[in-house]
Amino acid sequence: MSSLSRELVFLILQFLDEEKFKDTVHKLEQESGYFFNMKYFEDQIQAGEWDEVERYLSGFTKVEDNRYSKKIFFEIRKQKYLEALDKQDRVKAVDILIKDLKVFASSNEDLFKEITQLLTLENFRKNEKLSKYGDTESARNIMLVELKRLIEANPLFRDKLTLPPFKASQLRTLINQSNGARPPPPTNAPLLGPIPKPGAFPPLGVHSPFQLVVSPSPSAIAGWMTSPNPAMPHAAVSPGPPGIVQPAGAAAFLKHPRASSGVHGMDDQTDDSEHIMKKIRAGQSDEVSFSSTTHLPNIYSDEIPKTVMRNLSQGSSVMSMDFHPQQHTILLG
Predict the structure, then answer these.
(1) 16 and which of 25, 89, 98, 245 could share a cystine (Cβ 3.0–4.6 Å)?
(2) Angle at the Cα of 25 (from 22 to 29), degrees rounded to 5?
(3) Distance between CA atoms of 49 and 23, rounded to whole angstroms?
(4) Separation CA 191–CA 208 (nearest Å)
(5) What is the pLDDT of residues 151-204, one digit of tens each?
(6) 288 in Cβ contact with 276 (< 8 Å)
(7) Which of 295, 312, 305 is nearest to 250 (CA)?
(8) How far is CA 128 from CA 78, 110, 123, 131, 133, in A?
């Protein structure tokens, strides 16, 4: 692994230790093999947790790696074997002898035979080499001194017995610094800017002589159709295409015609348009008014009149038909 990965593991180990994740700390130490925690190793030996001692040690070295490693594993397994004999647990002692200590027979067969003969003794302290063996706790402490010497001499543990000097909570500090240097997250803004609201139509003026079209209500049409003699000047009606409604303010425009043409005609028409629009905005009424109670615009239709207004008996059949001279929607026959 790279040096960057190594430093990152150290930072994580520091963080886990500060957060009291003890089991996770030692698991990462053993799996990474970057830092051998001597204090933890000693605690496990003094507690007699032999399986954990070997499991933790296996993350850094194996029995066959070198003579230092072989001696370390031998001292641990020999102590486990002697404690089983001291408790008179022969079955466990034999199991340790076969599974754990037999691996050293190839390198020192005489030593393995001597260890095996301890099974025949009522008290293994009768062996001259083990006559000074005290209680379990003191024996473990003596073994620890030897193990520390072997570990420090083992080249596989070089640069793994101390952690690099880090400030307290270094990982948390680095994360906070990176978060502070990071730009603020983008807000959930639309991809496009705000769509402006459509404004009101510009006021009608010189360049826009457009006039509004007012649709008559059905009741007004019915009243106009039933009016017997509406007083509508014929001159106020101007020809136009069917379906177009004549604005009420157009009468004033027709009352003051201008005879000029060309460019002057366009200027005059523009002036008239401005005059009409000013009167429309101010709500003024035109000089020309309709005598009917309902001031309705003329409505042109392509349909033939179908409503019979009045039957006049002339004593003879109808020979011709024509529209009423004033009411153009009434057909006379």
Answers:
(1) 25
(2) 140
(3) 14
(4) 36
(5) 999 999 999 999 888 888 888 888 888 887 555 555 554 544 555 555 544 444
(6) no
(7) 295
(8) 16, 16, 12, 5, 10
pLDDT tens-digit series, residues 254-304: 445 444 444 444 444 455 555 555 555 555 444 444 444 444 455 455 556
How far is it, in rounded angstroms, from Cα 255 to Cα 267? 18
CB 97 within 8 A of CB 63: no
Cα Rg of the chain (Å, integer): 58
Q: CB-based burial of residue 137 (10 Å sphere; 0-12 exposed, 13-18 middle, 19+ buried)?
A: exposed
Domain limits, the chain: 63-153
- Asked if 308 and 247 touch (Cβ cutoff 8 Å), the reply is no
**Cβ burial, residue 60 (10 Å; 0-12/13-18/19+):** buried
Q: Between the CA of residue 86 and those of 78, 123, 139, what are the distances in Å? A: 12, 7, 12
pTM value is: 0.53
